[in-house]
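Our consortium's second objective concerns turning raw sequence data into structural hypotheses that experimental partners can test. To show how far this objective has progressed, the report includes one record in full. It was chosen at random from the queue rather than selected for favorable results. The single chain below, 521 residues long, was entered without modification.
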Amino acid sequence: MDILREMEIKPLLEGWPLTTIIVALLATWTIYSISIIIYRLTLHPLAKFPGPKIAACTQLYEFYHDVLRSGQYQFLINNLHDQYGPIIRISPYELHISSPDFYSQLYTSASNPRDKWKFSADMVGTPSSFFASVEHHVHRGRRMPLNKFFSKKSVYELEGRISGHVEKLCKRIEEFRGTGKPLSLRYAFAALTIDVVSEYAFAKSYGALDDLDFAPYWMDAVDSILEGCYINQFFPWLPALMKNLPLWVVEKLNPHITTVIKYQKDLSEQIQTIMDNPEQDKETDNLTIFHEFLTSPDLPLADRNLTHFTEEAQNLIGAGQTTTAHHLNTTMFHILDNADVLARLKGELETAMPDPRILPPLHELENLEYLSAVITEGHRLSPGNIHRLARISHDPIPTPFPTPTAPTHLIPPNTPISMSILTQHHTPSLFPSPKTFSPARFLSPPSQDLKRYVVPYSKGTRNCIGQNLAQAEIYMALAAVVRRFEVEVWETERGRDIDVVFDFITPKASRESRGLRVLVK
């Protein structure tokens, strides 16, 4: 049959000039494209929702702002809400909502499950990980083995490990006291977080705090990987290709990420050893997340393999370091940049820590009112994930956002709906002067109601699994550093070095940023 078709078509084509064939193909493509555009603007289920027409027509609009302009679409979306209202269409397929009260309706519990949009899940390039799992039940099965490991109870039990790394951080800071040599707290905090999460999850600290310069190449490597997140969305086959390339080729293409690749190789060897000898270390303190994976009855058999374990490890390392380090860097800057905040926090810590060398237990630090307010305000300005988080409901969702074209909205089932933590945290009606660092806003009587709108770890079944560990690091590190040291900001500007300029899933300052640098007196 194929031969007959070729015999029928070939004589026809031989009689056509090449230019005619090209013109015919272009005409066909043009007619098809115009038809798609007309459908998306008039007949598509999302056609009634407001937003820029070009965004409704094509994802190239999103590609331009996120890929070519490097993570700028989220900031444009905030401006689009000012123009079009609280619910807008930001692509042919996706709606974005800015109303803070809708957050808990979108990011729900297991009784009202949501799936993840595959286009959004492709960002991380780890398709077998729980973070990139599309279906709710698949995500639940992959995440379940880790819930106990990262629970509040487990963090309290391993508090000594965390405080040990905080003490090492303080010893390193002590080396700069009175030297006049600037200290990069950006890299120091990143070294702390990578060492904590690597030992906590893998029973093997990376040792960044032992490096003379706090292993800056590690944070630069993670940043480089995150900057490729939008490329992964539009070209989801690219991460797999990169993983299969020889290391020397990867070094030529992106020398920064070879640090992560080499570490992944070490983790893979560690995982394989545990898989070969699952009973080894079970009676010791050297248990890792991989022991949990192998022994958990919840993890599907299909996921008990080296690829899955390695991808989970990659995500935990990247997320566990970058987000917490950014919070510490940002919050510490604002503490030092506000004399009243610094004085009040120091006063509270002097009472709680009469001997600065002795760090109180975590539960006591968590009960310090002003320290908690400072940390909450730090979360508001520096949430871990600022990218919009798209969820899909298989049922229609009513929304209270009437527009001239749609007095009552009913979002069609299977529609990707997203919200952004950054947008939520900068809502002026909730947080007056949203760019101002003001812990006092969380001290007034209505503060508990206000706190529910601060969602640095998101909500629902896909909230940040490492939030208890991150909170422990933040409380301990800030308390120890503020109580023990007198430091001043050195050649650090908020607009250049601190404020969020790029959305690479996690927040990132300008290209010229060198983070928070201080002099230790």
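The partners drew two points from this record. The chain is about 55% helix and 5% strand. The longest strand covers residues 389-392. Both points have been shared with the crystallography group to help prioritize constructs.
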